[in-house]
Amino acid sequence: MRYLVGRYHEIALKGRNQWRFVEQLRHNLRSVFADVRLGKIRSEGPRLIVELPDELDDATACARAAGIFGVANFSLSYRVPLDLQAIKDAAIARVREHPAHSFRISTRRGDKRFPMNSMEVDREVGAAIVDAFGYRVDLHDPELTVAIEILADAAFVSAGKIPGPGGLPVGISGRAVALISGGIDSPVAAYRMMRRGLTLDFVHFHAYPLVSAASLEKACDLVAQLTRYQTRSTLALVPFGMLQREIVAGSERPLRVVMYRRFMMRIASALAIRFRARALVTGESLGQVASQTLDNLAVIENAARLPVLRPLLGMDKNEIVEQARALGTFETSILADQDCCTLFVPEHPETHARLAEVEALEARFDVDRMVADAVGATEVRRFSFPPRPENPGILGEYRDG
Length: 401
Hints:
Layout: E1 2-8, H1 18-32, E2 41-43, E3 47-51, H2 58-65, E4 71-80, H3 84-97, E5 102-109, H4 118-133, E6 136-137, E7 144-150, E8 155-159, E9 162-163, E10 174-179, H5 185-194, E11 198-206, H6 214-227, E12 232-239, H7 241-249, H8 256-274, E13 280-281, H9 294-301, E14 308-309, H10 317-327, H11 330-333, H12 355-362, H13 367-376, E15 379-384, E16 394-397
Parallel strand pairs: 5-6, 5-7, 10-11, 10-13, 11-12, 13-14
Antiparallel strand pairs: 1-3, 1-4, 2-3, 4-8, 4-9, 7-8, 12-15, 15-16
């Protein structure tokens, strides 16, 4: 019988509240494998042990486990009795499945009642593998590591440990709304906050039909990619082009970008409150563009009704691009599109906006009506992972309740 043995990341450092994090991790794990029937899940020290069904192939099991926040690393392990010969046989079987020229044995003896210590088990099992295959022992840089975990009722033997994403289980830190533009930065920001335990809803501002629907399609693709980390996502698509036109008709050119952003904050806040979220998440990086100077960030945030979280604030573009490539969103983000951020943008936008000046300008507008119109015209789409046939993705326009 195969088992997924997941080892805790930050969860291992939690004290009396650790059980809450473990229960959330259990819930998330079952959600990620919702289309298969998992067996028993039990917590054993700093690890979670999950019985895997025969119909689940190794590649799928590993791909999904690699996206579960809260897991430092994991193994596909086989359970054997607390008997040295049984452990040797299981180790030889694992090596036969994963040929290598060099190897090492890594034993952790969780149950100290086992008559041999970890080093003795390493030597005995290593010798058996050398006899069986003639492979070379390499303790520093082996091609294959055979991991043995000796627990109270059984031993678990696996071929190596696969890195997990670490962090905290999604959902343990609450709910927030992430503004997703279709660019490189916002998906990385969303990922980093999910890794801190937040469940995210998403908001995308678009200018369709004034421009093409490319940014809508990109936003949907990006949210679909991010949904594998939290299994359920809601994307609110806000038509923003007509609101921008209204701002252009009644405001000075340099302050338009700041005003666009302030209206985004108001609309996102209204949607977040309806989604029962408690914060907003943006992909802003200090000084990266004109709207992200310190002065402008302060004026823009002033319009939000909820705290604004900026996980990329101190990162440079190269660092963000590197994380986007690792995340797998970079290729989607760089596809050409026409989004509302490029519509009606002045040639020389203000970089040091003053709140009093912006508020005086906004007094010309019926702000509450403009926000209500945008929220009322918002379309909501839902995503799930694993994908399900009954989930068409489009649920229609947003409505209260």
